[in-house]
Amino acid sequence: MVGAGDLASLEAVLTRRFLFNAFAPVLIFLAVDATMILALTDQLQSAFAAFGRLEFLPQVLITAGYVSAAWFVAVIVAGRWRDIVRLFEGYPVVALFKRVGKLAPGVVWHRNALLEVRQRTPDSTRAYYSYPRERWLEDVLPTRLGNILLSAEKYPIERYGIDPIIFWPRLYPLIPPQFQRDYEEFVREYEFPLVVSFLAGTSGCLLAMVCLLTTGAPLVFMGLFLGCLAVAYVFYVLSLGSAVQMAEQQRTAFDLYRGLLLDAWPSVADVQDEKKAFDLIADFVVLNSPARWEQPQGTRLGRRRADRDLGEGRSGTPPSAAGTPNDSRS
Questions:
Q1: pTM of the prediction?
Q2: How do the domains of the chain map onto residue ranges?
Q3: Where are the alpha helices (H) located in the chain, listed in sequence order?
Q4: Measured distance CA(313)–CA(262) in Å, rounded
Q5: CA of 54: how far to CAs of 43, 58, 195, in Å?
Q6: What is the pLDDT of residues 211-264, one digit of tens each?
Q7: What whole-number distance in Å separates Cα of residue 91 and Cα of residue 113?
């Protein structure tokens, strides 16, 4: 049972995540955008003068309204976080070009880069963190961020037959609280620059459009648009290092704690390996396949390891006494 302390800790983490990764960036960018729009429309000085002539209470109400508007936009940004990540991964671009039977820009380059680090001039460290293995060549995405996360996504599939899309939401509540806190910290570190990058790109498009509709000055238009895009690109690049660390945390979670899933889900009697067990569990979850449950798979694996050790003369423990959990949880 989850205690009140655990709920309070989770609430604190989510609150910090919202305040620093959504509300604070939105608050700043809305102020910058409003100031620039007033400047482009030659209303900046008059707006500040009018605000200064107001009584204290109207000033407080206007400020409170601005903060409320920022909070509302921040809630929208936080609620669409997964869509923002997928945008930077390149999925919308891939889907758009797939409609016309074309590869998205960047896909061919990253496919060649994958083959370069995997085969032509092998660089195992870079390949491990940056790209999936060659069998996933057709799934390569057009951005560095997309392929970093794709590499982590394919890792548990290759090693253990675990589909992270299905099993990560079920594994995460089972992993130790300290690991959860560390993981949340990595998530916050990689979310923040992506949110700033997204807001900078959005601001660039908005301000460039206002410039065209008001001053029409080409230099101002290019300065605003390219300046905001430069900020967006810099923060996108800053997110990559944190994304690598977060992806490694996901790999580590499956390496160390996948046995907790096997203990949580019973398995059919004739399952002989982890990959088969996770295939059966996935069929049960996704396809509602009929279940013939026997006992927790972790117990079966522990018993089989004891039987194996006894048969090879490496253990004196009788098979009936062996109930050790899966090695993956050590």
A1: 0.78
A2: 10-90+143-255, 266-329
A3: 4-18, 24-40, 44-52, 56-79, 81-89, 91-99, 107-115, 124-130, 144-160, 164-171, 177-213, 218-264, 274-282, 297-311
A4: 27
A5: 17, 6, 34
A6: 888 876 888 888 889 999 999 999 999 999 999 999 999 999 999 998 888 777
A7: 19
